[in-house]
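Deliverable D5.2: sample structural annotation.
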Amino acid sequence: MFARIREEIAVVFDRDPAARNTWEVITCYPGFHAMLFHRPAHWLWLAGFNWLARLVSHVARWLTGIEIHPGATIGRRFFIDHGMGVVIGETAEIGDDCTLYHGVTLGGTSWEKGKRHPTLGKGVVVGAGAKILGPIMIGDGARIGSNAVVVKAVPPGATAIGIPARIAETPGGGPNGRFAAYAVVKELSDPMAKAVHELIDHCVENDKRIDQILAELQRLGCKVEGEEGAHLDAGHLNKMVD
């Protein structure tokens, strides 16, 4: 038990540059406190003392602002940064070395008994306000962007952003195993924005071709009726998309 506590203190220094000393972590970090409560609550839940386990969990929620169901399974070196508003459901499973920021929900979407909540692989980072819903798998090393709503599985090492979440493209395939605070990865390429840029470029090219066709028809003596239409302002639209 004490080895686990030492691990959880050490991981704060690894992932939060604001941490200055061990005493500060022990006394002032709600994510650390939430895990201190979750361990006995989970033990009580597995032992069949469900009401008592829920009571311990409820006290922890009142003290920390973090709600972890005692039935949730959580691996080693788990870190909740800031923590306020985090909700982790009963059948959620969290692998080793995962990080959650404030406002994250690992929620269920079904009234059925059994597995209803997400499973997070090892080393997953979930940004502030993200919602991961349903019995889906988030692969090892995946990143979930802030405020994303994830309802489908995310492959290992991928970065998911948006509502609903979609897989973003990153140069080299991902963050190369480095910890990404708030799941922010440099040079992230939103596939939706990329598709819109391509559509804009295609429309501009079509405008050019139509102008060439009209000019050639006029040169051949054909009468072209109607006024010339306004052209697409590609620069302005691309700025809006970015």
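Annotation notes: The first helix runs from residue 2 to 15. The mean pLDDT is 85.
The annotation will be released with the project's public dataset once the embargo ends.
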